[in-house]
Write a structure and sequence with these properties.
Layout (H helix, E strand, L loop, with lengths): L1 E5 L5 E6 L4 E5 L3 E4 L3 E6 L3 H9 L6 E6 L3 E6 L4 E8 L5 E3 L4 E4 L3 E7 L3 H6 L5 E7 L1 E8 L2 E6 L4 E4 L4 E5 L3 E6 L3 H6 L5 E6 L2 E6 L3 H11 L6
Antiparallel strand pairs: 1-2, 2-7, 3-6, 3-10, 4-7, 5-6, 8-13, 9-12, 9-16, 10-13, 11-12, 14-19, 15-18, 16-19, 17-18
């Protein structure tokens, strides 16, 4: 299998499959493909269906199998980037809800529950995230620019709501309250931020969909009476 990310800030993942090769994506993710590639919609059991649903994805996945060499493409939903991340048995990946675009066979998709109640209630990422285990490549959709950091043991990175894309399973997520009354009332950052503690690799994004939607909404003309 060969792949290429094309299109700059409006990226498309173009995957070339040889006969017998396959790729898996969430339902509705495919944008265009060559003749000779067949789609097989799968559920994988009630547990996996419910897990995908509560983690922000479709209840079904589509498996595309090439009968002959051909190309299949997956376009991003907002301006940003697409990243290919290698997953190994010793290095599972935790990602935010809605980041998953596609994956190679050999990857197992499941839900990941936040261990700390505070992270679920106040951290902005919710209780449920996505976990990818096994061996293969996961393709994630990034909203805006992707920044990557390698956190050393005990090193912390504080991020605002919605800016986390993915992290190694070795990272720990918690919340920290913004200090100072003025900061809380006038800082515009809310009461809490998410704190990630290493060791591990993290990926953050510059323009979460929610932030983009709020910005566009503020520019829309209001209907006068």
């Amino acid at each position: 299998m060969k792949y290429e990310v094309q299109g700059g800030t409006l990226p498309v993942l173009a995957v070339t499959l040889d006969a017998g090769e396959e790729i898996i994506c969430q339902s509705g993710a495919m944008s265009w493909m060559d003749d000779g590639i067949e789609m097989k919609t799968e559920a994988g059991g009630l547990g996996k269906m419910l897990g995908r649903m509560v983690s922000g994805e479709s209840m079904f996945t589509n498996r595309y199998v090439a009968k002959a060499t051909g190309e299949i493409s997956f376009a991003s939903s907002v301006p940003g980037s697409i990243m290919a991340i290698e997953v190994t048995p010793s290095k599972p990946l935790i990602a935010q809800k809605g980041a998953f675009l596609a994956m190679t066979p050999g990857i197992e998709f499941s839900i990941h529950f936040q261990k700390k109640l505070g992270s679920g209630f106040f951290g902005g990422e919710g209780f449920i995230m996505q976990k990818f285990t096994g061996s293969g490549i996961v393709f994630l959709e990034i909203d805006g620019f992707a920044a990557e950091y390698d956190l050393q043991p005990g090193q912390k990175k504080i991020i605002d709501t919605g800016y986390l894309v993915a992290m190694d399973a070795t990272c720990n997520m918690d919340i920290v309250m913004v200090k100072g009354v003025k900061n809380v009332l006038f800082g515009g950052e809310g009461l809490f931020n998410t704190t990630l503690t290493g060791p591990g690799h993290i990926i953050v994004q510059s323009m979460p969909k929610e932030q983009l939607a709020a910005t566009l909404a503020s520019l829309m003309p209001t209907k006068s009476n």
